[in-house]
Write a structure and sequence with these properties.
The complex is a heterodimer. By secondary structure, chain A is mainly alpha-helical. Chain A has a single domain (53-302), classed as MetI-like fold (Orthogonal Bundle). Helix content of chain A is 67%, strand content 3%. Chain A has helices at 8-35, 54-61, 66-99, 106-118, 121-132, 140-146, 163-175, 177-188, 192-200, 205-216, 218-233, 237-243, 256-265, 274-298, and strands spanning 38-40, 48-50, 266-267, 270-271. In chain A, a hairpin with a 7-residue loop joins strand 1 (38-40) and strand 2 (48-50). In chain A, helix 3 runs parallel beside helix 7 and helix 13 (256-265) runs antiparallel to helix 14 (274-298). The longest helix of chain A has 34 residues, at 66-99. Chain A starts with 7 loop residues before the first helix and ends in a 10-residue tail after the last helix. The radius of gyration of chain B is 20 Å and the shape is globular. Chain B contains eight helices and two strands, in the order αααβαααβαα. Chain B has helices spanning 11-21, 36-44, 58-64, 101-114, 117-126, 143-154, 173-185, 191-203; strands spanning 84-85, 156-157. Chain B is an all-alpha fold. Chain B has a two-stranded parallel ribbon. Chain B folds into two domains: 1-79 and 160-211, no CATH class; 87-157, no CATH class. The chains are: A mainly alpha, B mainly alpha.
């Protein structure tokens, strides 16, 4: 019996990825979770001592933290819902139009629609917050007056009822290129034979989309959903650039990212609290992990790959 | 307030928030969504008559406005005649007491110069609206800065309540003042309700010494 040689080459090939991923992703993540179990010592604030799950207890029950956490989670789900209801369906619609043989200037439209995705958050915040929606400088006022809807003009970013939805839609505007590109790639991959066969059988354009194309791009729908979920629950930049670290008015636009930032690094005269910040990061990690697990177990494993 | 004898939701502190609430009808359209730089620009463009602010605004306003600027100190309530200004009550510069030898001598030389009349004049003229902390008599070239400075003689000094000690906990008093005053200006909180929130927030972590 010949003993198989130990596959050394596998270790060698895996090593770069494993080492880099461990040093820059896994270790910081575990260390952040570790930090959330510590708190500054009462005798000497310079020293952090182990306190178990006390920070989590504070975060979930303390009247200074619990309402902020609930508000941030709720706002984050609204942020996510707007992306799921607007960004992804409209992204799919645009992708369908862009892959349709009937549409002209497809390359121009594709580039134009993808452009905002490549802009920095600071620019997007400036464009929407100052150039378009600002009550002082913004062009939105003139636009609404021109089309006869002058009564609709409001300081959208300054009112608690409208600020979060407005910023969610700005984020949708910025990122609509991602689902559009992913859906386009999936739609292009569908064999023409299937579509032609359906046409021959008398399917309408809607029938072809709903019964042929949509089931075939279902894996992409899943990927887009999970990318949106992870992206939204890690979001921070746009809110911070437009509304600042207090995510005003009255925390109406406070999401987990801004709540984490304010707590971990501090804001204005509020001193940073790394251990409570790490606790919020721990909760964010758990929420995202749960979402990803639901997707992997409940959705991805049920997908069947279609060969044609 | 530090000693616990004054509260944020009564007396002068409450009166300040009530005065703030009365400004709402005079604010510019869409003020809810205006940033600090927006408000500065609105004023220098001539869209406002009065801009409540501090002397630090002198350079920017003088450079960007094409009209003449005048200033007046915070008005006093009816019947009162003492005015109050907040004049850098919370700034200091010092030296490490453990310094020795040459380095101590060098630090002392530097500090003596910073405390001198020469430095006071250079500093206050280079940065109109920022004033030296020393008692030295200085002549300022900028008339507005000079007028601000003259209030030191007429008015009593008052505090910035949310700086230092009262902002060392959670919720942070400074951030709470920002949040609550915006809500009062938006008409979403009455001055009393806002002041109660501020005091409750402070009470949740700050215990005055000896209480």
């Amino acid at each position: 019996m010949t003993r198989k040689r130990f596959p050394t080459h596998i270790i060698v090939f895996l090593a770069p990825a494993v080492i880099i991923y461990t040093v820059f992703m896994i270790y910081p993540l575990i260390d952040s979770l570790r930090l959330s179990l510590y708190a500054p010592s009462a005798e000497n604030p310079q020293v952090e001592e182990f306190v178990g799950f006390k920070n989590y207890e504070t975060l979930f029950t303390d009247p200074n933290y619990a309402p902020r956490l609930q508000g941030a989670v709720k706002n984050n789900f609204i942020f996510f819902a707007v992306h799921m209801l607007v960004q992804n369906p409209v992204g799919l619609l645009l992708a369908t139009l862009l892959t349709s043989q009937l549409t002209r200037w497809r390359g121009v439209f594709r580039t134009a629609l993808f452009l905002p995705t490549m802009l920095s958050f600071v620019l997007v915040g400036f464009i929407w917050g100052n150039i378009i929606l600002s009550p002082l400088w913004g062009i939105a006022d003139d636009f609404f007056r021109t089309i006869g809807l002058g009564d609709l003009i409001q300081p959208w970013l300054g009112k608690p009822e409208t600020a979060l939805i407005t910023l969610s839609l700005v984020s949708v505007w910025q990122f609509i290129g991602i689902p559009m590109m992913l859906f386009s790639a999936a739609l292009i991959g569908i064999s023409d034979e299937l579509i032609e066969a359906a046409r021959v059988d008398g399917a309408t354009a809607w029938g072809v989309f709903w019964y042929i194309k949509f089931p075939l791009i279902l894996p992409t729908v899943g990927i887009v959903t999970i990318l949106t979920f992870v992206g939204n629950f890690n979001a921070f930049d746009l809110i911070y650039t437009v509304q600042g670290g207090l995510a005003g008015p009255n925390f109406a636009t406070d999401i987990l990212g801004t709540f984490f930032y304010r707590t971990f690094f501090g804001f204005q005269l509020q001193a940073g609290n790394p251990t409570m910040g790490a606790t919020i990061a721990g909760v964010m990690f758990l929420i995202i992990l749960t979402g990803v697990l639901v997707y992997l177990v409940g959705f991805q494993r049920r997908l069947t790959r279609v060969e044609y | 307030m530090i000693a616990g004898t004054e509260k944020l939701n009564e007396g002068g502190s409450l009166a300040a928030l009530e005065a703030l609430a009365r400004w709402q009808p005079y604010l510019i359209d869409g003020y809810q969504a205006l940033s600090y730089p927006d408000a500065q620009s609105a004023f220098t463009l001539g869209l406002g008559a009065i801009y409540p602010t501090g002397s630090w605004e002198i350079s920017g306003f003088e450079a960007n406005s094409d009209f003449e600027l005048g200033i007046f100190p915070p008005p006093v309530p009816e019947g009162a005649d003492t005015c109050y200004i907040s004049d850098h009550t919370d700034i200091a510069i010092g030296m490490n007491a453990a310094l020795e030898g040459d380095r101590r001598a060098a630090a002392e030389t530097f500090l003596s110069w910073v405390a001198s009349a020469e430095f006071a004049g250079l500093y206050a003229n280079a940065l109109p609206g920022f004033f030296p902390l020393s008692d030295a008599e200085v002549t300022l070239d900028d008339p507005l800065a000079n007028e601000f400075l003259s209030w030191r003689g007429e008015c009593e000094s008052t505090i910035r309540n949310s700086y230092q000690i009262l902002s060392r906990g959670t919720p942070n008093l400074e951030n709470e003042l920002w949040r609550v005053s915006a809500q009062i200006l938006n008409g979403e909180l009455t001055p009393q309700a806002g002041a109660d929130e501020l005091q409750a927030g402070l009470d949740s972590w700050y215990t005055p010494a000896g209480m």
